[in-house]
Amino acid sequence: MMPACLTGIYCLLAFLHICSGSRLRQEDFPPRIVEHPSDLIVSKGEPATLNCKAEGRPTPTVEWYKDGERVETDRDNPRSHRMLLPSGSLFFLRIIHGRRSKPDDGSYVCVARNYLGQAISHNASLEVAILRDDFRQNPVDVMVAVGEPAVLECQPPRGHPEPTISWRRDGSNLDDRDERITIRSGKLMITNTRKSDAGKYICVGTNMVGERESEIAELTVLERPTFVKRPSSVVALAEESVEFHCAVQGDPVPTVRWRKDDSDLPKGRSEIQEDHTLIVRQVTYSDVGSYTCVVENMVGKSESSATLTVHVNTVPPAFAIHPRNQVVGVGRTVTFHCEATGNPQPAIFWQREGSESLLFSNHPPQPYSRLSVSQMGSLTITDIQRSDGGFYSCQALNIAGSVIIKALLEVTDCE
């Protein structure tokens, strides 16, 4: 226990007793604390120092008290792990904390004394830092789809000071500058998850004792099925073979199947190849319809369709109206009439000799162009220039064949 002279009345009695036996020297003065100890948090087994500095004349002696009891130092026991330094500070060779020996954590004061009195420092707490091994909550495996948020939860081991939380992916610290990543109260949140976010995650709890790593949690980022190549519509003659292509990607790898409208594929004449291409052989008019590629995995499902048109009684194109050669003056307008018949109805397009440009009846004319093709297939040229002279070809085309015919345009200076 702290000696009785620490209380006011006993200190006064001691002071009077001393003064009655000797004459007070003019230059002597009682102790005062000029440096108070500060609170400390120290790891077990580490050295530590509680500072204390006092002034007085004669030079005061310094003692330390913990939780009201005098502290034993090397001056009392040479084997003590606590040393009283000449300055008055208390030095710990190593901090002891445990059940087998008296722990060092507690509330400390230093007391400076001379014959004129004593001074007591402020209280300073010495706390032993702790970081236990077992996480209160380990993260668990999470599975999300691309674009979805992912949340990994973690509660660090108990510790003092309270451990801070960080995260590592595949052994590297997470870059929390990524605006998609938030770490709050031990919880890792990733918005708009990407495939690159997949990996093995650990939660790391850290304080001055060191760090502890959680169990590994794996983040799996799945990908919904998407089309790399969609099927295209096909026009075919009866008895021909047709192909519909379908290429997809996704994680897990999607399953691919085909359907025709709301019924089965043509039996005995349809085949699905390894690359998911659908082949229909010897098509008939009954095969006409919509063919749908259906792709699916555990994350989602997608579909893409194309139509099959089958012409049974086909007739190759034939010209019903032939374009005629024409002579036209500069600045005038000229029209070449061209019409064709066939089954299916042929498409008509024009091409000037020496040019790679094609002019179709179902395409709108280019801005500022002087050439246009009507729905029936006639070619009109406005504001004729000398450079417009030459041969123009009219071509009619359907799946049964094609025909072509030329007409000459001569340009004169007469308007």
From TrEMBL:
<dbReference type="Pfam" id="PF07679">
    <property type="entry name" value="I-set"/>
</dbReference>
<dbReference type="InterPro" id="IPR007110">
    <property type="entry name" value="Ig-like_dom"/>
</dbReference>
<feature type="domain" description="Ig-like">
    <location>
        <begin position="31"/>
        <end position="127"/>
    </location>
</feature>
<dbReference type="GO" id="GO:0030424">
    <property type="term" value="C:axon"/>
</dbReference>
<keyword id="KW-1133">Transmembrane helix</keyword>
<dbReference type="GO" id="GO:0005886">
    <property type="term" value="C:plasma membrane"/>
</dbReference>
<keyword id="KW-0393">Immunoglobulin domain</keyword>
<feature type="domain" description="Ig-like">
    <location>
        <begin position="133"/>
        <end position="220"/>
    </location>
</feature>
<keyword id="KW-0677">Repeat</keyword>
<keyword id="KW-0221">Differentiation</keyword>
<dbReference type="GO" id="GO:0098632">
    <property type="term" value="F:cell-cell adhesion mediator activity"/>
</dbReference>
<feature type="domain" description="Ig-like">
    <location>
        <begin position="225"/>
        <end position="309"/>
    </location>
</feature>
<dbReference type="InterPro" id="IPR013098">
    <property type="entry name" value="Ig_I-set"/>
</dbReference>
<dbReference type="GO" id="GO:0006935">
    <property type="term" value="P:chemotaxis"/>
</dbReference>
<keyword id="KW-0145">Chemotaxis</keyword>
<dbReference type="InterPro" id="IPR003599">
    <property type="entry name" value="Ig_sub"/>
</dbReference>
<comment type="similarity">
    <text>Belongs to the immunoglobulin superfamily. ROBO family.</text>
</comment>
<keyword id="KW-0732">Signal</keyword>
<keyword id="KW-0217">Developmental protein</keyword>
<keyword id="KW-0524">Neurogenesis</keyword>
<dbReference type="InterPro" id="IPR003598">
    <property type="entry name" value="Ig_sub2"/>
</dbReference>
<keyword id="KW-0325">Glycoprotein</keyword>
<dbReference type="InterPro" id="IPR013783">
    <property type="entry name" value="Ig-like_fold"/>
</dbReference>
<dbReference type="GO" id="GO:0070593">
    <property type="term" value="P:dendrite self-avoidance"/>
</dbReference>
<protein>
    <submittedName>
        <fullName>Roundabout homolog 1-like</fullName>
    </submittedName>
</protein>
<keyword id="KW-0597">Phosphoprotein</keyword>
<keyword id="KW-1015">Disulfide bond</keyword>
<dbReference type="GO" id="GO:0007156">
    <property type="term" value="P:homophilic cell adhesion via plasma membrane adhesion molecules"/>
</dbReference>
<keyword id="KW-0675">Receptor</keyword>
<keyword id="KW-0472">Membrane</keyword>
<dbReference type="Pfam" id="PF13927">
    <property type="entry name" value="Ig_3"/>
</dbReference>
<feature type="domain" description="Ig-like">
    <location>
        <begin position="317"/>
        <end position="412"/>
    </location>
</feature>
<dbReference type="InterPro" id="IPR036179">
    <property type="entry name" value="Ig-like_dom_sf"/>
</dbReference>
<feature type="signal peptide">
    <location>
        <begin position="1"/>
        <end position="21"/>
    </location>
</feature>
<keyword id="KW-0812">Transmembrane</keyword>
<dbReference type="GO" id="GO:0007411">
    <property type="term" value="P:axon guidance"/>
</dbReference>
